[in-house]
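re: ur question from earlier - yeah i can do the single chain one, its not a big deal. heres the input i used so u can compare w yours
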Amino acid sequence: MAALRFRRGIGGLFKVPATRQHRSRAYNESQDFAEVLRQPKGQRTKLVFPLQELERHLAPDARPSLHLKLFEPSLEDIARADDLFTATDRHRIEYLSSAVRLEHAPDLLRPEVCFIGRSNVGKSSLIKALFSLAPEVEVRVSKTPGHTKKMNFFKVGKYFTMVDMPGYGYRAPEDFVDMVETYLKERRNLMRTFLLVDSAVGIQKTDNIAVEMCEEFALPYVIVLTKIDKSSKGRLLKQVLQIQKFVDTQTQGCFPQLFAVSSHNRV
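and the output i got, formated as tokens:
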């Protein structure tokens, strides 16, 4: 259910007409969301804001450093974001095309968000979870690192496009740097970059290259911690604190609050 809050993180970037926002009381549109609403308040918070669960393990004077509540959407906000990711005849969500060079990418006016990260960090899995309300959209997911070799473009209605980038590091495409660096530097409609980091191992040397590109090109970006279910609370808290310190002291364009997603229960 981690995709629930993350949908709101993306949907909040775009202005959606009120007629679409209030098409229904979207609480009933998603089984995942309905399941969340049935939980006691404490469990709901744990599901929707998983990092807040770690806060109680910190000394009181250390808690503000986590920046856990800069972005704290209400349940109604999350329901509207579910609506944005629900395909209808008038709101089409679909795969557009793939490209190995920026000049081969679809020439679109609508805003874009892209997902980058190390091979096998979970980019395609996260996008698949985001599109769970549009099951006709095929997002290929593989356990083999380096499965994504091209930039894959997905249309979300008339509002924005999502781009699944090839992974860097192990089995990355030979022309990865040319492909991704050119896209990040020259794609004029790129509004936000989501940099995925494996929460079990934290920021690696290859991640620093992606951070440097985002900083050099003055791109607004967000660090998303993946696979948070794979670590103990103690280990996860250690990684979160280290990454948060990195964001606070070594970045300028990174949103100060971390996002967190699970590898298997779509949190």
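The chain is about 35% helix and 15% strand. not sure if urs matches, ping me
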